[in-house]
Amino acid sequence: MAAPADHTTAHRTAVYLRATPERVWHALTNADESGLYWGHRNVSTWLPGAPWEHQRADDSGIADVIGIVEAVDRPHRLVTSWSPSEQPGPAGPSRVTFEIQGWRDLTRLTVSHERLADEAEVAEAARGWEAVLSNLKTYLETGHPLPQQPWTMP
């Protein structure tokens, strides 16, 4: 019997960074550092099954996104569920996979955001990930994030 059709929608993007895989991993998983370029602090123990929170970097402790760490292969792969903390989507949480691959002096970071509800969520995810990954690249390569938060650009 064939498996049921999968009607999920996804967004996938990659960025190449002049940084080691370990450095990219640290920037993604360190709460203080992620708050510098993401506008949110990624807070967790980063152990499989542990909760994680995407807390605002304004020290309010408010988590706009929550989830569970599904898989960890430090510093190469991290998988988390992803759900708005106020109103989880009707289809349940989406899933974000970070794949980190080093090669010579470069690292390719591929982000896959799966289980999105519809094309509008795919477009929103694309805008968000492009802005965050641009800011991460600038931060890791210069030591400073972009001068304005790119996700606020009209």
Notes on the protein architecture:
The protein has 154 residues and is of the alpha+beta class. It has one domain (9-143): Alpha-D-Glucose-1,6-Bisphosphate, Chain A, domain 4 (2-Layer Sandwich), CATH 3.30.530. The chain has three helices and seven strands. Strands 1-7-6-5-4-3-2 form a seven-stranded antiparallel β-sheet. A hairpin with a 6-residue loop joins strand 2 and strand 3. The radius of gyration is 15 Å and the shape is globular. The N and C termini lie far apart (48 Å). 27% of the residues are buried. Mean pLDDT is 92; it is low at 1-7. It comes from Streptomyces kaniharaensis. Residues 19-141 form the Activator of Hsp90 ATPase homologue 1/2-like C-terminal domain. This is GntR family transcriptional regulator.
Beta-strand content = 35-45%
Instruction: Give the low-confidence spans.
Output: 1-7
CATH fold-level topology: Alpha-D-Glucose-1,6-Bisphosphate, Chain A, domain 4
- Structural domains: how many: 1
CATH class category: Alpha Beta
Largest sheet: 7 strands, antiparallel
Q: Helix count, per DSSP?
A: 3
How many extended strands? 7
For the record, the CATH architecture stands as: 2-Layer Sandwich
Radius of gyration: 15 Å
CATH-wise, what's the superfamily?
START domain
The outline comes out as: globular
Residue-averaged pLDDT: 92
Query: How much helicity do the residues have?
Result: 25-40%
Pairing-aware structural class of the strands and helices?
alpha+beta
Distance between the termini: 48 Å
Task: List the quaternary state of the chains.
Answer: single chain
